[in-house]
């Protein structure tokens, strides 16, 4: 699995992501600046890390969604390539339309920086194969706009087609519709989620709860 | 010409910022304040001289970038 990690101005979680990828994949990810117009040849997985791209101006992820590289990412996704968006990366891919819905301001208006528990809704995907179905794991979160929202029809479709990847299983702190923390594209090859599995991939970080995500991808 | 794009959250979309502003106004003693909704106003200076064309262009900009029509509605006003 060859990964390319996208870098937008204001992104600050790319080092965590590089570490997680290096450890599980056993090879270095490519780092791709947002002004590039093409992904490195042989890219299997595009990762959009967390942070505050373009200072969250206008709406979280709205400016980054218009960056030149995103055209190549859309083409990659249309070819069936893998895409992972975490936190601001999730917001960016909803703004590009690769995933439905939008991340609104947290319902309680507070920036939430703490651990949360997530439930794995299905494990027959390239992102979740190393977990048991229904497994719960700890994931740090750090966001002001993680309140997942979509219209009722879209939410029903996501649930009906099994496209909910993760749900908050302890407390739904940010107000997300139906406790949704992460969703898949219909072909199960694009995943967006708000919490940060990449921040728990080594005992030195206090746990390895997030490592199955990267181990699953490495085995794909 | 100038286009003024007003962007509001659609009805039914939770507006926690509007709620917080409403609470703060109530706390200040403005008991007459009920629901508060918060939006954005974006002013665009356009080289366009035809009002209809200016409106059409600004609406296209709103659809493509300025508003997220999943949760927001917008209206465009042309002035000057």
TrEMBL record, chain A:
Keywords: ATP-binding, Cytoplasm, Glutamine amidotransferase, Hydrolase, Ligase, Nucleotide-binding, Purine biosynthesis. The active site is at 87 (nucleophile), 196, 198. Pathway: Purine metabolism; IMP biosynthesis via de novo pathway; 5-amino-1-(5-phospho-D-ribosyl)imidazole from N(2)-formyl-N(1)-(5-phospho-D-ribosyl)glycinamide: step 1/2. Coiled coil: none annotated. It holds the Pfam family GATase_5. It is found in: Cytoplasm. It catalyses: L-glutamine + H2O = L-glutamate + NH4(+); N(2)-formyl-N(1)-(5-phospho-beta-D-ribosyl)glycinamide + L-glutamine + ATP + H2O = 2-formamido-N(1)-(5-O-phospho-beta-D-ribosyl)acetamidine + L-glutamate + ADP + phosphate + H(+). One of its GO terms (molecular function) is ATP binding. One of its GO terms (biological process) is 'de novo' IMP biosynthetic process. Its EC number is 6.3.5.3, 3.5.1.2. Its main location: cytoplasm. GO terms for cellular component: cytoplasm. Part of the FGAM synthase complex composed of 1 PurL, 1 PurQ and 2 PurS subunits. Part of the phosphoribosylformylglycinamidine synthase complex involved in the purines biosynthetic pathway. Catalyzes the ATP-dependent conversion of formylglycinamide ribonucleotide (FGAR) and glutamine to yield formylglycinamidine ribonucleotide (FGAM) and glutamate. The FGAM synthase complex is composed of three subunits. PurQ produces an ammonia molecule by converting glutamine to glutamate. PurL transfers the ammonia molecule to FGAR to form FGAM in an ATP-dependent manner. This is Phosphoribosylformylglycinamidine synthase subunit PurQ.
From TrEMBL, chain B:
GO terms for molecular function: ATP binding; phosphoribosylformylglycinamidine synthase activity. It is found in: Cytoplasm. Its main location: cytoplasm. Pathway: Purine metabolism; IMP biosynthesis via de novo pathway; 5-amino-1-(5-phospho-D-ribosyl)imidazole from N(2)-formyl-N(1)-(5-phospho-D-ribosyl)glycinamide: step 1/2. One of its GO terms (cellular component) is cytoplasm. Pfam families: PurS (PF02700). Its EC number is 6.3.5.3. One of its GO terms (biological process) is 'de novo' IMP biosynthetic process. It catalyses: N(2)-formyl-N(1)-(5-phospho-beta-D-ribosyl)glycinamide + L-glutamine + ATP + H2O = 2-formamido-N(1)-(5-O-phospho-beta-D-ribosyl)acetamidine + L-glutamate + ADP + phosphate + H(+). SUPFAM superfamilies: PurS-like. InterPro entries: PurS, PurS-like_sf. Keywords: ATP-binding, Cytoplasm, Ligase, Nucleotide-binding, Purine biosynthesis. The keyword Cytoplasm applies. Gene3D superfamilies: Phosphoribosylformylglycinamidine synthase subunit PurS. Belongs to the PurS family. Part of the phosphoribosylformylglycinamidine synthase complex involved in the purines biosynthetic pathway. Catalyzes the ATP-dependent conversion of formylglycinamide ribonucleotide (FGAR) and glutamine to yield formylglycinamidine ribonucleotide (FGAM) and glutamate. The FGAM synthase complex is composed of three subunits. PurQ produces an ammonia molecule by converting glutamine to glutamate. PurL transfers the ammonia molecule to FGAR to form FGAM in an ATP-dependent manner. Part of the FGAM synthase complex composed of 1 PurL, 1 PurQ and 2 PurS subunits. This is Phosphoribosylformylglycinamidine synthase subunit PurS. It comes from Acidocella aminolytica 101 = DSM 11237. The lineage of its organism: Bacteria, Pseudomonadati, Pseudomonadota, Alphaproteobacteria, Acetobacterales.
